[in-house]
Amino acid sequence: MQSSAALEYDYSVAKLYMWTAVIFGIVGMTIGVLIASQLAFPELNYLMGEYGTFSRLRPLHTNVIIYGFTISGIMASFYYSAQRVLKVSLAELPFINALAKFQFLAYLVAATFLVISLAMGITASKEYAQMEWPLDILIVVYWVIWGINMFAMIGARREKALYISMWYYIACFLGVAMLYLFNNMEVPTYFFSGGLGHWYHSVSMYAGTNDALVQWWWGHNAVAFVFTVPIIAMIYYFLPKESGQAVYSYKLSLLSFWGLMFVYLWAGGHHLLWSTVPDWMQTMGSVFSVVLILPSWGSAINMLLTMKGEWNQLTENPLIKFMVLASTFYMLSTLEGPIQAVKSVNAIAHFTDWIPGHVHDGVLGWVAFMVFAALMHMAPRAFKREIYSKSLLEAQFWIQTTGVVLYFTSMWIAGITQGMMWRAVDEYGNLMYSFIDTVSVLHPYYTIRAIGGLLYLIGVLMFAYNFFMTATAGRKLEQEPQFRSPMA
Amino acid sequence: MFHWLEKNPFLFAVGVFVVIAFAGLVEILPSFTNAARPIKGLKPYTVLELAGKEVYKKDNCIACHSQLIRPFKAETDRYGKYSLSGEYAYDRPFLWGSKRTGPDLHRVGNYRTPDWHANHMWDPKSVVPASIMPAYKHQFKNLADLETAYAEAVTVKKVFNTPYGDDIQPSKAAFEKYYKEKALPEALKIAKAMKNKDVLAMVQQGKIPEIVALIAYLEHLK
Q: In terms of CA atoms, which chain A residue is nearest residue B127?
């Protein structure tokens, strides 16, 4: 990476997404804490009538976090770092810059309608693909505009070789496009019935087992191409930038990238173990899940070794703390996933709280930590101000880390407890527990999980305050910092 | 070794696409050529049941309930026969769920009654004292959307050849006829079995609340 003194970059689009990341982060995680508390204290289901039940709020939580918080973080990072690694400023491309702003507008419109429709219970019901067809079209438009912008910027680049982050952004664009289109194939009923019923209602193109197969091909790979691929793009840019260290190994990044691309797609079948999809697909899902450890750990180890000889930065710079812990959680999560994908383990783990536990050590520990670090690295450059408070960042780090640990440990215990109780038989071979016994036993773990989530949310609020103060009241910077972000 | 590729964004993108599309081609396509066929004797959902399925989707029961009995003794003992692919042939979308905060429902029609469901949805603690499920009282007031469900039946009959009879036709008049002659009597049967006076009165006035459709759907799950 060379000095970028010659070019004046335009961060206006990146800044818009930074703010929405903060706002959606607060909203999504507040709902998360509420629904976690509802499982421990069911009276909390009645705060907002029919709109406040766990079941109605849960997709709101997942969608606001995935498409609100995470996509905002990804887009902010993209519109910030793509200019830099391609050596082209958006200020030089006024049309693309305007298109990017229009894309942001489409994003806000889609987000608004998504929240309203989920609150009203208008849903296609497939997990992380709940949007009905009119919203699907809007989202496709949004995504295509992103692709146009990305390739226009690539076309205008001065740096001929694409940096590693760009590989991952391209993969994110293509992967989500392919998966989203196929999974959301649906027939609008209004137009096939001579105008009967609600115009926005649709019916899936696929039925039963086929539908499940396509859905988890999407569900699993949405995790790949939203929660993994672009987040790796972020860490490959922000960790070397913040630490001033070169990426440890080009060959390892190459191996991890192409390995991840090839292997990830096969692993979707592990969501359907012991179901009615053909057995060979289930086995492929299991096998490839285990193989997936290689490219996943490849990226994570590459990041950790980038810090070689500079581990003192871990104690001095909270942003390095966030990113190193993010890589570590990525390793934990990508080892845990394959374990759960082993058929015999899955027989116990599936349908239990171990699964949300696994998801959350990934998203809280890896995705969100990386987004926080990226936002705080960008803030001094985009707002030309010093980070408002280092001690606040330090405190946030420890509070949130405690929160994550409480979250996944309690869910491990809850999941395995419940999985074992469901199958427990007495000496005569009769089931030992009725279902409700296996629910009541979880109360303490649900409580601990809610506390863990609350700690994490407190950290998010501290972050939001810190970010807001940085943007508005941080000490003004004369010159753009080259590596380590200045903080008070 | 790959430096040339990284300087050629178009070929790079094509390369990525081929690599990620490969698994889908090998894994997904063969299953589609051999699409799930219905098991013998499987009937498509009635319009009332489809409307109930919409209530199931709207209040998002799949957040906590699965519809997939795995082939383990502990599961077949608890829920009944393990699930077969052909049983889902008319499920668009599939509603297997991914989490059992509550029990599986794939064969709930075998061991619960409309009466039980009515009490349970009104106040889960009245039948399962330790339940953490919220009450769904609004389902007793909101009306089920039979017209959209009818539109769905028309659509799947036309597009996917789902075996519906001649009473499913793409016109408002056909819907109104169906509503009066088929849907209402079916709803009345459920309402009577529910032993809830208010609900029964509503159905007798020609209005079908969500709870009646939902119970019709749950009764179909066998």
A: A436
* SS3 of A326-367: HHHHHHHHHHHHHHHHCHHHHHHHCECCHHHHHHHHHHHHHH
**Residue with structure tokens 């010159």?**
A479
**Binary contact (A189, B155; C-beta < 8 A):** yes
Report phi then psi at A226, rounded to 5. Answer: -110, -45
Under a CB-based contact definition with an 8 Å cutoff, are residues B220 and B107 in contact? no
Q: Is the pLDDT of residue A68 over 50?
A: yes
User: CA A182: distance to chain centroid?
Assistant: 21
Closest B-chain CA to A183: B93
Q: What are the pLDDT digits (tens) for A189-240?
A: 999 999 999 999 999 999 999 999 999 989 998 888 999 999 999 999 999 9
Q: Rounded distance, CA A84 to CA A89, Å?
A: 8
User: Which H or E run includes A202?
Assistant: strand A202-204
Q: Taking a C-beta distance cutoff of 8 angstroms, is the pair B156, A68 a contact?
A: no
Give the chain B residue nearest A86 (alpha carbons).
B7
For chain A, the domains span 12-473
**Does the A12-473 domain belong in CATH 3.40.50.150?**
no
Instruction: From A246, A456, A469, select the one nearest A369 (Cα to Cα).
Output: A456
Q: What angle do CA A392, A395, A399 make, to 5 degrees?
A: 135
**CA-to-CA separations, A256 to A175, A251, A252, A294, in angstroms, rounded:** 16, 9, 6, 7
CATH number of the structural domain B47-220? 1.10.760.10
Residues B64, A160: C-beta atoms closer than 8 Å:
no
Average pLDDT (B132-153) is 97
Tell me: ipTM over 0.90.
yes
Q: How far is A362 from chain B (nearest CA, A)?
A: 18
Alpha-carbon distance of A378 to A327, in angstroms, equals 19
Domain ranges of chain B: 3-33, 47-220
- In this complex, do A211 and B85 lie within 8 Å of one another by their Cβ atoms? no
The pLDDT, as a whole number, for residue B34 is 63
Shortest CA distance to A384 belongs to which of A469, A470, A484? A470
Task: Specify whether the CB–CB gap between B206 and B148 falls below 8 A.
Answer: no
